[in-house]
Specification:
This protein is an alpha/beta fold. The protein has eight helices and seven strands, in the order E-H-E-H-E-H-E-H-E-H-E-H-H-H-E. The protein folds into two domains: 197 residues, Rossmann fold (3-Layer(aba) Sandwich); 37 residues, no CATH class.
């Protein structure tokens, strides 16, 4: 599949899944713009791909998101990938943690998709993709704020899909299980610190519900994002696509 002539904006593009999607979209011929809060990791990712551009932006800030799109210029594919996770039992979840999880994961996605659609309106083709989670499809213990935010992302995508239907733009969500990324490594470390388990035991706890018995690879999610931009994907709209081996 070739994406020659297409421009892709990926938030949270400096690490993990965002960095992998950036590399794979560039390999498919797209011009890629990656955004994030820290310039250094963005620069490291972009250095591996000639022509890849970077924009420092905070997706929780409306003015910053608007400036991000202005700096990126016209884009064809918008991937709202920026996210964060934190865990605590519900009775110990602070307002600060709640607001942080909703701010990055839900408000950040809202602002990114809103500005993306404002730019794509009236054009013949476009893609709005949000990276949600299987936490947006089911409940998980100790991550109530994160789970609520990801449920909100899926609701936002489904509502957006109704508005963009028939325009040439589609809106979909990707819902991976636990990913083999830095974010999951932090979750493993947290389990170790709070329970005294070994890394192997902590990892086993995260993958216990997976029919695959392993973490999901970023490349698998990137491939799904590319598929949503490929031939024959025009009728795929408003979907929350689980990448978890059949766990949900």
């Amino acid at each position: 599949m070739s994406l020659e002539g297409r421009t892709v904006l990926i938030t949270g593009g400096g690490t993990g899944l965002g960095a992998r999607m950036a590399a794979d979209f560039a390999a498919a011929g797209a011009q890629v713009v990656i955004a994030g809060r820290r310039a250094e990791p963005l620069a490291e990712v972009a250095a591996a791909t000639p022509g890849m551009r970077t924009v420092v932006a905070d997706v929780t800030d409306e003015a910053s998101v608007q400036a991000m799109f202005a700096a990126a210029g016209p884009v064809d594919v918008v991937i709202a990938n920026a996210g964060a996770s934190a865990s605590a039992p519900l009775h110990r979840t602070s307002m600060t943690q709640w607001e942080e999880m909703v701010g990055v994961n839900l408000t950040g996605t809202f602002l990114t998709l809103r500005e993306g659609w404002a730019q794509l309106r009236g054009r013949e083709w476009g893609r709005l993709i949000a990276v949600a989670s299987t936490a947006g499809l089911r409940g998980y213990r100790y991550v109530g704020a994160y789970t609520a935010a990801k449920h909100g992302v899926i609701g936002l995508v489904r509502a957006t899909a109704q508005e963009v239907a028939g325009s040439g733009t589609t809106a979909n969500a990707l819902c991976p299980g636990f990913l083999a990324t830095e974010m999951t490594e932090r979750s493993i470390a947290n389990i170790q610190a709070t329970t005294g388990r070994s890394r192997e035991e902590a990892l086993a706890a995260l993958t216990a519900d997976s029919p695959l018995g392993r973490l999901i690879e970023p490349a698998e999610v990137a491939a799904a994002a590319l598929w949503l931009c490929g031939p024959g994907s025009d009728a795929v709209n408003g979907q929350a696509i689980a990448l978890d081996g059949g766990a949900t």
